[in-house]
């Protein structure tokens, strides 16, 4: 068979076994009709849109998950929504047009189609309609997970009208298949339609199951009642426990609380406490800690993070958590995560005797800070998965894994067999043999076809568009397969499934689960890919938080939580270190203004001493902490003012005024890039408003360098003051009632201030 045979108008037709159906190769047939230019343009435009659509869906599925970013660009969201909304009516119109053109050709004896045949263009359109309905389920999940309202729970992810809309679309396509598809193509279309119907029903069932489940949709209400009841029963017994013993005795639920017998009351759900000893039901943090015995701290931290996630989710859903729970959280985080049981009960600022003991305490405090931040990071990952994940990881369990993927596969195979039996009049084996021979024949001819297309694709527009439609059809199908496979990989490697396996092991202690758990917890390539893509595909590059900053902020949070000392915007530090002459810089009621004033002063201080720092051995810990937190707070003012604890419009107004004054100062007298010139211009700002942030920042910078004597050999003292002040200021802005803003930040990949907010929320630290 050669290219001339394929492209000839009178080319040979190929008959399928046991059928009189014949079909000319579609390279010629697809565009051979006498269509108008508008019809051809519409077909080509649709193919191009479908091609772009497939690429976007694959990109969203892969890069969105790895980058940790759930937010979707508004332009992409509008394109996806419009494409899928207009697709079915547009394809229905093109399907009808293809049939009409075929009928005209038949009457003019330009085609050899029999009365029961469906034109090839209509077949392609029908395949596209089914493929898009398969992908529509993925798009619905993506748009729901990336919704502009990040606090939407499973209760709002699907309504009755959504389900009816899905059923009507699929029923319409089924009607087209039933009415117009006959012959050997009928089993294939029926199988594809059944698969589409099953996948739609699968999503509806998963969401409805989550809505009604006390493990997902109603879990926050149940956990709040359970925690309040257990806190009341426990009293103050935990005060005598120290170190990891707190976690071994911790009754926070990890999984299984939905299995307990419960009763709704005026203060929420109450469970029957006498049944809590049944290990086949509830698995607590203490059960995991007793089971692991310190061999795998990462797994223990993961389960603690999952338990804390349930408490934080209650805050997201506007449930009130008892104050006693914050006291217990302080014990768990500030003392329980310490590896030193003897020192676990000591506060952050307790004094010890001996340099060795001081060094040990400092090392232990740093390890505690790293571990606590790691637990909160894991917790926020659970939060983001719950509100933004495209994959139903919130239903993770070994049984759901079997039902969601493997059982659906068996259903599809079963429906395929039924379709073959029905269309073959009960002769299953002959039909399968016929299909196998046809597939083998088509495969050989397809190879020749693509070889010919490779030679002809650059010669004629008809060949180009015909091959493009082949590519689009394959791309849509491969997009579905890739997204299904990717969802399975994400599901298997998710922390949700890992926690579920740990709880199953805690209940039954099956040896097989141990190997699974230890293998799943080490998916290093996944973590590496995620970190790389975070830097490559997010709009703004991520900057890792230095360990020195984490240690300083955690020590401040620990001190505030343990002593009950009220938070301040830097005033307490200035009083403690004896710099009352600088208190005016913290007098403003606007947090944004205080941040900008101290940021300008810190930048001036850093620029003035940059030469001295360059000649030295390197940055000190205090300089790292002060400079990093100063720049991060300025970043929050400029790029994320919704995370600050004050009015959004007020923050923007102060920031715009400050930047306007600074730009005006730097433009005077042709100042360009010389650091010395910029320093003098900024320090010389003397605007009409002495209370403007830029003017106050310049004045504060002069005081730091001149009146306080922080220049020259006293630079270290200046950085000590700035490090402590910025640490206290960051802790001051961390508590916030703006849950919506932090949820939005999680959708964008997360912010360090959101991590501090979660830590402050758990430990009851408020302004």
Automatic annotation (TrEMBL):
UniProt keyword terms in alphabetical order: Membrane, Transmembrane, Transmembrane helix
Residues passing through the membrane, by range: 38-66, 78-98, 390-411, 417-436, 457-482
Pfam families noted in UniProt: DUF4220, DUF594
Keyword Oxidoreductase: no
Matching InterPro entries: DUF4220, DUF594
Name recorded for this polypeptide: DUF4220 domain-containing protein
Domain of life: Eukaryota
Residue ranges, annotated region (Disordered): 338-364
């Amino acid at each position: 068979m050669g290219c001339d045979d394929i492209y000839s108008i009178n080319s040979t037709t190929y008959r399928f076994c046991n059928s009189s159906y014949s079909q000319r190769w579609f390279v010629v047939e697809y565009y051979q009709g006498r269509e108008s230019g508008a019809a051809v343009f519409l077909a080509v435009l649709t193919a191009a849109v479908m091609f772009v659509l497939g690429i976007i869906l694959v990109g969203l599925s892969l890069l969105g998950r790895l980058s940790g970013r759930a937010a979707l660009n508004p332009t992409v969201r509008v394109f996806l929504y419009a494409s899928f909304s207009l697709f079915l009516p547009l394809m229905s119109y093109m399907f009808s047009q293809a049939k009409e053109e075929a009928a005209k050709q038949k009457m003019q004896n330009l085609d050899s189609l029999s009365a029961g045949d469906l034109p090839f263009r209509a077949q392609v359109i029908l395949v596209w309609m089914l493929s898009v309905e398969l992908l529509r389920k993925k798009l619905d999940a993506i748009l729901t997970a990336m919704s502009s309202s990040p606090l939407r729970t499973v209760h709002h992810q699907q309504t009755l009208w959504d389900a009816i809309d899905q059923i009507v679309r699929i029923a319409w396509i089924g009607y087209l298949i039933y009415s117009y598809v006959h012959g050997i193509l009928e089993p294939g279309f029926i199988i594809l339609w059944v698969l589409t119907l099953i996948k739609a029903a699968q999503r509806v069932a998963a969401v409805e199951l989550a809505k009604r489940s006390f493990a997902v949709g109603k879990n926050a209400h149940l956990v709040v009642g359970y925690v309040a009841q257990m806190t009341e029963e426990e009293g103050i017994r935990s005060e005598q426990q120290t170190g990891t013993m707190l976690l071994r005795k911790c009754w926070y639920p990890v999984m299984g609380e939905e299995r307990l017998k419960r009763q709704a009351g005026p203060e929420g759900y109450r469970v029957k406490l006498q049944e809590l000893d049944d290990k086949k039901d509830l698995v607590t943090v203490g059960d995991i800690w007793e089971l692991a015995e310190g061999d795998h701290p990462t797994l223990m931290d993961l389960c603690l993070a999952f338990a804390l996630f349930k408490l934080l989710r209650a805050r997201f859903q506007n449930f009130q958590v008892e104050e006693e729970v914050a006291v217990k959280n302080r014990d768990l985080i500030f003392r329980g995560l310490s590896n030193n049981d003897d020192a676990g009960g000591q506060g952050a600022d307790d004094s010890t005797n001996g340099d060795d003991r001081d060094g040990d305490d400092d090392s232990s405090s740093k390890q505690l800070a790293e571990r606590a931040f790691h637990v909160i990071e894991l917790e926020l990952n659970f939060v983001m998965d719950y509100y933004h994940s495209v994959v139903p990881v919130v239903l993770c369990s070994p049984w759901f894994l079997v039902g969601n993927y493997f059982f659906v596969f068996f259903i599809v195979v079963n429906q395929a067999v039924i379709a073959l039996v029905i269309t073959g009049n009960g002769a299953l084996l002959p039909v399968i043999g016929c299909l196998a021979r046809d597939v083998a024949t088509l495969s050989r001819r397809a190879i020749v076809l693509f070889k010919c297309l490779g030679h002809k694709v650059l010669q004629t527009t008809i060949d180009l568009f015909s091959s493009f439609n082949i590519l689009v059809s394959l791309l849509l199908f491969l997009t579905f397969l890739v997204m299904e496979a990717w969802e399975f990989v994400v599901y298997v490697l998710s922390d949700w499934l890992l926690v579920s396996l740990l709880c199953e092991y805690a209940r039954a202690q099956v040896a097989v689960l141990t190997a699974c758990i230890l293998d799943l917890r080490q998916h290093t390539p996944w973590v590496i890919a995620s970190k790389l893509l975070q830097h490559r595909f997010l709009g703004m590059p991520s900057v890792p938080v230095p360990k020195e900053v984490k240690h300083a902020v955690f020590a401040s949070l620990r001190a505030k939580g343990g002593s009950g000392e009220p938070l301040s915007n830097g005033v307490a530090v200035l009083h403690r270190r004896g710099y009352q002459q600088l208190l005016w810089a913290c007098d403003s009621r606007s947090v944004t203004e205080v941040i900008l004033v101290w940021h300008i002063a810190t930048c001036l201080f850093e620029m003035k001493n940059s030469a001295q720092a360059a000649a030295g051995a390197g940055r000190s810990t205090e300089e790292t902490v002060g400079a990093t937190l100063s720049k991060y707070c300025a970043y929050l003012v400029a790029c994320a003012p919704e995370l600050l604890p004050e009015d959004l419009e007020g923050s923007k107004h102060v920031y715009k005024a400050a930047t306007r004054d600074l730009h005006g100062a730097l433009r005077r007298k042709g100042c360009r890039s010389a650091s010395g010139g910029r320093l003098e211009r900024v320090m010389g700002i003397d605007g009409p408003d002495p209370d403007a942030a830029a003017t106050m920042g310049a004045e504060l910078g002069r005081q730091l360098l001149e009146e306080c004597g922080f220049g020259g050999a006293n630079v270290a003292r200046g950085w000590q003051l700035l490090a402590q002040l910025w640490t206290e200021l960051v802790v001051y802005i961390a508590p916030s009632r703006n849950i919506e803003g932090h949820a939005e930040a999680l959708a964008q990949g997360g912010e360090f201030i959101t991590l501090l907010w979660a830590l402050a929320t758990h430990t009851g630290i408020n302004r």
